[in-house]
């Protein structure tokens, strides 16, 4: 399969990876044939990329960090909890929501099982979801990315669980906002931005009163907008004043937000997001944590369509952990735009292709 822009998709092409609704249910499943109506519907729902079947890349299969079943269970849990808190005034008034901690221990336990089975593989977040599902899928992605950093740091089981639950629920304070503000599709004005800033404290107050949720997990909600140089909020903490869990969640939050389409901007490519993160080292984030994070994220994920400085177009068929910016590319089109007679591969890590670089990717 290969990843393409929705605007490059054509009627008759076959979807190679399932697209999810906001609650984790299937919108369009693997094997569905695209039509003009489907393509327009996907555009209207905020889908900007697709995975499609291609006879030249049918052996290229990107592996998500977690299984689809695990992702669905996690999104279901986040969706039920967040929408319940938004819509149920009785729940909002409670100091404790029964079994919340136990439920999310189970959810992150499944995520952790998947991650632990493939911790040495570069992460490729390749799930697709509609724009309205960003909030729920984003929480799951942040927990996946945070879990990977926790594993890389050698956290024990208790630390991983504290971090993972904090990452799944780091934005729970957003449920206390007015719904029209929570899902606003245009840029916020200054007054709205100030109101949204309270979600960190609202989230902390919600989580610190829950049974079976660590106070350290609650600090992920409180501190995920603090910044390494002291310019964040709500308390302008700096450096080691910010708990490491919250620093990890902050990096994961920003990275996944950058590579996700938002109502007011298109998504960044993973390579662009990584450049921005690295540039923010020791200003927004601890540079050492950023470096550790970047060692475990694919700059050019498998199945990405890329353009080379030679003008050739191909698909990433393999990544090299020793040089994540030099993957193996399966060439599909030559520099003049003509399709190749037979696809062939170029290992950009090889000395034979050291002068060739990727200049653009989907």
UniProtKB/TrEMBL annotation:
Cited SMART domains: HDc
Domain HD residue range list: 135-258
Pfam families in alphabetical order: HD_5
Domain of life: Bacteria
Residue ranges constituting the HD-GYP domain according to the UniProt record: 113-309
PANTHER family registered for this protein in UniProt: CYCLIC DI-GMP PHOSPHODIESTERASE PA4108 (PTHR43155:SF2), CYCLIC DI-GMP PHOSPHODIESTERASE PA4108-RELATED (PTHR43155)
Protein name: Uncharacterized protein
Species this protein is from: Brevibacillus borstelensis AK1
